[in-house]
Amino acid sequence: MTFLFLLAAAPAEAKLVTINDMGEIVWSVLSDEASITLEPTSSFIEIKKIDQDKPDQKPVVSLGKQDGKISLKVSSENGTKELEINKNENNLIEIEERPEVNKLIIGVQNDKFRLEQKGVVAYTENQINIDASSAKLKVATSKGDEFLTILPYEAVEAALRTKLLTSVSRGKLEISEHEGELQYKMDGNKTFNLFDLYAYSIPVTAYVSPLSGELLSIDSPGWYKYVSFLFI
To answer: Domain 152-231 has what CATH class?
Structure first.
């Protein structure tokens, strides 16, 4: 059985789906429970949690786009619930922290999916699938689903550890296929401190594996590519 809802408006930080530390789905809905198409009557709409008599079994949460429409879907042995998302919402899905799982917030912004971990944000146009029981993420690619083992904050940490970048620009992370592989793309800078008198920066774009955290390649001024090993 499939339930379809239309999300027309919601408070700025209102979670619709929480994957708690037990791997269970907790739904939040607009206060007008009787309506299938949820139309707002004012700028403020109350959000409250639904108490489920029977927890979803083997739930999978998906955030995807088809025919220009974005939808959030929760599928389980109990059925499927689907919501159509037609506005920017940074906080649609929250994965709560648990052992070996970091808190992650997933939303939609400018027709892209937004993943936020510890203040670091990455964007992707690829469908996101979440196994709620394990909190493992997969991203749809032309070759099939691939695990997103390394989350945004961890990807930035991995890039900075190489010392090929000094900083990464906020909001400049993308998750997409590059040269046939799913990669993080992040824009940043390498700053050289010359004799503690002058700081000189060059732009550097890093590509990081979302599976291993390995730095795959960089785009930078030609000369830096040839001498970058001196700064590792």
So the answer is: alpha beta
